[in-house]
Fold these 2 entries.
Entry 1:
Amino acid sequence: MQSSINREFLKGLWNEHPTLRLLIGMCPTLAVTTAAINGFGMGLSVIFVLVCSSVLISLLRNFIPNQVRIPCFIMVIATFTTIIDMVLAAYFPALHEVLGLFIPLIVVNCIILGRAEAYASKHSPLYAFIDALGMGLGVTWGLTFIGAIREIMGMGTVFGLPVFPETATSWIIFILPPGAFFTLGIAVGAMNHINYVIERRKRQQVSRPAAAGQAVQG
Amino acid sequence: MRDSLRLIIVLTVVATLSGGILAFTWDRIMPIIESNNAAALAESILEVMPRAVSYEIWTAEASSAADADASASATATADGTSAGTADASSSGTVSADATASGTADADSTATATAAADSTASSTADADATATSTTADTTASSTADADATASSTTSDADSTATATGAAADADATASGTADADATASGTVDGTSGSSLVANVIEIYRGLDANGKTAGVAFVVDANGFGGTIRMIVGLDPAARKLNKVKVLEHSETPGLGARITEPAFLRQFENKSIDDGFVAKQDVDAITGATVSSIAVASTLKAALTEVETELRAGGAW
């Protein structure tokens, strides 16, 4: 029980990372991540919508017939998206000003509908909650990471703090749309490479436990 | 048949549930958002006019009729913490004006009374008891076109406005109706304003003695991603801009959105209004956001010309 909860939580953070492994929810990933803070704010908004809608859909899963599940999911997701939009406007006007355009787009975000369809509609509310939280945190670190890289390369700052001296030339293209694709491609490639290295190390440890130390160096 | 009925019932239940959750939040959040917006606008108006301690909504009639000025400015005194409530009360009195002139103008056009009507009901929601009752009575009296009812309400508010409306009924109707729309947070561009479309509202700043201490106006520019709403403070005597502030925009984050940064907006401070306002010549454009920069600069130039014409026509320059 405990280990399965852990697994459900952790899978969203790495093995089934929504943006960098499953490559879903690309619209906010590419559009919002011009700065680290934007990606972070978007990630938090996604956590809220994802957790709330997953739990509610999980509660309603035996009540909603299969034929109309998509409209029902969309209605639930749209409700929470509107709520987070209003809450941000009321309590965090500065963040809402930055993210305002993209918050309504959460409703068509594949991650949320995907989790509702693939997980929340088939599991109990507790598991739906754990899964949604893990996936939401995965999205948050993914978007923050991509946003930080683009901000560093494009403006020489991260979270608004300068990391390069004033004289350094910043590459504006990383703020522009092409930069989003470059960064995403490199991040996905790096993630795949890390997984490949881990996988290889595991295999070698299983087949030749004695030579594991050498294999890592090689 | 039974199956499809079940689907419809489920959909209705889920829609009702979602709607209920939404309505619950909406009722709690919207007043906060509205008061935030009103407070932010009131704060911005004073911020762009450094020497002003209060402001009033400028109309051609307000500057000619001294009494109407006094009553409007008395309620529009907004500073710091009480900005939200002060603004609300100012919109209340202005809406009373609008209804008074609307009834005076009752037989000229159908659209004018309709506009007055709608503003009256919208402010009645947001306002205190006294104002809302007068607004209600005038709203019903415009529907009936009852002359006595409208005259009593205009008496109750201020007689100066009534005479001003009688002298220039049409202009008063359009000017105040438009003013009210902005004060209550929604902009009604089609209410027959005498201003050209993109200048939304003009405010006159007052110093401690009630003298003019600057002019501020709200203007919309067509940016790259949508409308850019700015508030501009200017010093008519020195023919200089005081300060420009972006209120709303939907430009690209990280690029066009940098028009809100001080580094860009500071170059308009103390800029002569006779300058060209050409991006990449006397205005530095933001790298990668030329469209937004040009939109801001050229709109400022056009709006300044408009506002100057407007103020000169009203004898307030």
Entry 2:
Amino acid sequence: MVSILAAIEQAARKHPAKTAYQVDQVILTYSDLWHFSDRVAHSIMKLGLQRQQPIIVYGHMSPFQIVAFLGAVKAGHPYIPVDSSIPSERLQTIIAASDAKLLLSTEPLHTNISIPVTAVEDMIAQPSNEPVQPSCWVRDEEIYYIIYTSGSTGKPKGVQITASNLASFVTWMQENFPIQESSVFLNQAPYSFDLSVMDLYPALVGGHTLHAITQEQIANPKDLFDSLAGSNSTVWTSTPSFAKMCLMNKEWNQDLMPALTTFLFCGEVLPPSVVKEIMQRFPHAGIYNLYGPTETTVAVSYVKVTEELVDQFEQLPIGPLSNPNISLLEDGEIVISGPTVSAGYLKAPELTAKSFQLLNGKRMYKTGDLGYEKDGYLFFSGRKDYQIKLHGYRLETEEIEKQIGNLPPVSDCVVLPIVKDDEIVSLSTYVVLQEPLTDSAFKMTKQLKSALSDYLPSYMIPKTFKYVEALPLNPNGKVDRKRLAAWETV
Amino acid sequence: MEKQQILDMLVDICEDDIILENPDIDLFEEGLLDSFGTINLLVEIDNRFDISVPITDFDREEWNTPNRIAGKLAERQ
């Protein structure tokens, strides 16, 4: 099987001056990527950390971000990507939960944390081109990266992906998708989401170019489309929500991005309406709907979306039934086996045992997703629990409830997704306060939102807060979510 | 196009009556609008007032409050 690092080294030897990464107007060549990450690895190795101790990489889309990823794994450590949009308290939680002993930053960190912080830039400044011995690299069943995802216990959980998980995933990508030589991959997702892995490693392992777009560009659509137009992208990877946003610009089409030949969508349900519109705008591009949770390394199945498929089904399938690694339990839960099943949650044996189980002698991940079969395809039909996808972000409403419940003025609360046209568009929360409201509800909401933003990223903060004297209960004494949801019907 | 219609539209999009109480509220800072809400807003402007605002003309700094949005739309009418 392919070694991720050996393949990137080969790409760096073959064409050292080629662009490995571009963002804003900044370019990183394969040669720089390789040598800079060696320097980072050497600096890490001097610190005498225990092998496989996780290292946090904090920042956004800087080229040094991927230098730090490779530097960490070259030194034998898994990295934990933490996007700079993540609030400080959540960063502290991740540091404590992961027992990380070092944080590498590519952006200024405006908070005091309990472990040493080193700027990647400073590590690179030390002039040395001594290679790191491949025997030091993270290998086989060792952990390569850890991605933290929303957890229903109130704390995020760290999904551990091994070197062989990642290598299996990249091989699967190479075998199943038409990736031409000298491709340019687009990266839209922050590195703290594993959707980014879908473009990052296929791009680097194949010696291609990765074009990253930043949150700042997304917030200023003119910059976003300028960046897209100048990117020469051939492979588009994003959530359907992001594409939907781009579709709003009538100029987003084949003329703006003439080289684009492949769309890869993952992370949430792909609506047929989005596909139809993209087919018209990009008549020469192939569109793929991929499926898979973070716990099984990015994605495990896909369908190529054709016009016939769109006409045949109201909802798009997430894979063919023939996929040997996917099966359905009796209650309809989707379970996944095979070489990309994660090593489990970091330092959380109980959570791991609950979701990663041996079934028929094979190690499987119970996704919590519900599915059904029809006409030779597998379809997604919902969740067993309160996990939801909002604009492609995976979140547990229970985690948000716990964080709101921890705020001093709050006595109880429930978080509900707001659904419009079969799609979750925002979150709403019903809050019971300790003391009756004395000031305006608006001021209270402002105060609660502000307090919450220390603990939760902005996409997890409910849009509307409603204050009630008590939450409705069902006959079993539990909060009656159905009744509340009925209040929410728009 | 009445200003009240614009405020009503914003109440629908932001799902919050605060817009009527405080038309100078910063919609982005208060978490009432984000990138997805922005898109929604432009679609609604087109649907309700037949004014098409190219997404590339939308500058967050200038379209951040109900009053400013009303001003921008009045210019474009």
